[in-house]
Design goal:
2 domains, alpha/beta, Spore Coat Polysaccharide Biosynthesis Protein SpsA, Chain A, two-stranded parallel ribbon, Rossmann fold
Length: 350
Amino acid sequence: MGGTRPARARNARRLSGGEKQRVGLARARVLSPQLLLLDEPLANLDHASRNRTFLLIRRLRSEGISTLVTSHEPQVSATLGDEHRHLCKTGPCKYTIVRPFLYRPPYQEDAEHNLATALTTDPAEHPMSTPPPERADAETTPPLLPRPDITGVILAGGRSQRMGGEDKGLVRIDGRPMVDHIIRALSPQVGPLLINANRNLDDYRGFGYPVIPDIMGDFYGPLVGMASALQVTETDYLLCVPCDSPLLPHNLAQALYGALHARQAEIGVAHDGSRMQPVFALLRRDLLADLLTYLEAGGRKIDTWYTQHRLVIVDFSDRADTFFNVNTQQERRMLERKLVSTDSSPGGER
């Protein structure tokens, strides 16, 4: 059932995440339940595994088995279920109240059509996830940079739990607060500059730039920081960077804008050659309404929201070390050594 046949003769420890999910669902199906509780059934699966698991859940539904799905991805529960109920803490849903509503995003009709087709055809031909975004080379993008039309925001609104709660933007590196290193690297690349912070606001204001706290929630993550900045941004573009990566590429804005403009994309994101760096991103300001809808529906995952839009990934593999970020005291010492090495090199350019 559900593509579990290949896993029968294998040790359970050697099964992939998707195979384990499908084996678990098949085992539950044998008990002929009236209700199945599924907690993040599609989390951490590749495209093919998500597809097969999704189809298996839909098959259970067609057999009359009710399912209750919990997910941080609104579009998952919206396409799997008949109703979507949002449970939140603070922000758009106040006083820890469950606010029921039918979540029907603008892309759902197309998704439902594609998924209905997938039920009768090969899943590989109708993937649930968005196709891989286009890629561009940071060095070959045209140097079209309208600096005054790009607002920069330094995202410093996190809890910094791995640093013992210390406000990372104010952590001193080579004698200066980390956010000061970012300001010096980012300000020549943008017009207006903002700082998104939720603590020590007066300290951040001391750097001479507007400080924007999160507009909702209690440390809900970088997407809320981006939405908070987009709400006050008057330019057409917003360039986002984290507060804990002082080795910022000198051509970050130029490369992201060039790729976004050339591919007519809505979001440009840096890639260090090994992984996408989602908080190094250039966004169009007109994405604000869609982002607020996603957040109010309970969405928090930045990668998930990105894949709902025209996305271009820009290759910075030739300077991957510029995305080095600080999460521990050991990494802090490593970064200080990197800064000393960079400052002493000819030209000192990153």
